[in-house]
Amino acid sequence: MNKNFFLSPRIYAGILFLSPLIAAGEDIPIAINEKFTAADITMPPAQELPSEWSFSDCIDWAAANTTSIRRNMLDILQAEQDVLSAKDGWLPSVGFNTRQSYTNFPSAYEGQNGNTYGSTYGISADWTVWDGNLRKYKIESSKLLLSQKYLAEEDQLKTLKLGILEAYMNILYAREAVEIAEQTLEVSDAQTKRAYALMESGRTSKVDYAQIESQRAQDEYNLVQANNNLANACLSLKKILELGLTTEMTVKEVKFPDSEVNAPLPDKNAVYSSAIAWLPQFRSNELSKEIYANDIKAAKSTRLPQISLSGGVSTGYTSGGPGWGSQMGHNFNENIGLNLNIPIFDANSAKRAEAKARLSSLDYDLTLKSLSDDLSNTLESLYIDSSNARAGYQAGLSRLEAASLTNDLTSRQFELGLVNPLELLTAHNNLLTARLELLQSKYMSILASKTINFYLTGNVTLP
Length: 463
Prior knowledge:
This protein is of the alpha+beta class. The protein is built from 13 helices and four strands.
């Protein structure tokens, strides 16, 4: 009769009793996040939309409903399962096995049954007592990878905040540009009516009137363009928030005082140091350094001896002998064993794994340099943009004042017949250009300032 060796319930209970004690000796607590579940990933977005979107409304909506954030949530849940899987490495493996066989003896001895039926039944278990701390390193690495997934979520939210800030500011800029276009069209309407009256009285020609009427048509087209730019700016924000093209969106009115345009900026080095401390990419890279160290330790651990505990209980039956019940009772056996595996030569597998892990650890320094350079270039560009925008704003104030005076004077002179329509239209367009350039410089300066402060504090707010 064939006998298989499997783990008995008593031996299995002993292993189950020992494994938590040894696992506890490793002192590896597992903390699983319970902020959200798998159901939260596929749940529909909130149905109630604000009538007017504030900047904070946009941030809250993006953090709860955008696909990128929900994808990060999925990654976190999967990483949590990896942590649990690594912890499960401390548990024993248990299995049930049975074999049913039928044997035919074509040339059986006299008195021998030429057909024999046999069966075996057993339960076996195996538990690794010592593996060179490989399980410990796997748990630590899986927890570090889980932390990196949380940081990836933070980084995605940071990207969304900056994208929403730029899109929101573009809407505010486009809205004021529409107001300027409307005011300019009102002036053009008034000038056109005045020119028509002058033509009717014979004080100006039809050609002069046609030129002014053409400018009014151009200003009307400029208003259409300004409204289209506002619609496109709203569309950009809706795309970031994944609201859908049919959703109507109106942002709350925000007014920035002139004092905010020239508000003092924080020290560049202070912003750089603060950003390095809180930016998720830098913190994630620090975790990678620990993961690389664990990989090296894990590669070394494969050179160490491994100890495992195994046991089993089995029984069986073969036809032609005593009854089934009698054989099952007499063939019942239990066994337990302690196995020691000492690596002697593994074809340099451990050596290559350790060398590869050490090479991978060099990525930490390369990534740190790349992140530092990118941050430095980003901040440098922001400070340059802020400086240019502030200078442009100051120059724009002077240009606007001069253009306004020139436009007022030219309008009065035109009514008196002292200047031709071309000079009037030139003054009119110069005023429009000065207003738009000043508006652009204003919002560029505020956007750069808000972005710089975001890198300093990690937060961004609008009044």
